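pls design
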């Protein structure tokens, strides 16, 4: 799977380009805020441990 392509174009390459622009705008704003002293924002999209995975897993992830 090409994760970069999925972020840029969505699954099936049907994502509206405005979504990527919004993500890039948000990333730029967060980088600017961090450069000005704000705490880094942490996105917890991968569980830190097996217990957390079991608590938050979707049926698809549970089958893996």
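designed seq:
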């Amino acid at each position: 799977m090409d994760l970069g392509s999925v972020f840029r174009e969505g699954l099936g390459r049907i994502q509206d380009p405005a979504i990527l622009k919004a993500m890039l705008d948000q990333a730029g704003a967060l980088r600017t805020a961090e450069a000005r002293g704000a705490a880094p924002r942490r996105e917890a999209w991968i569980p830190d441990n097996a217990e957390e995975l079991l608590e938050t897993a979707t049926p698809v992830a549970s089958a893996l």
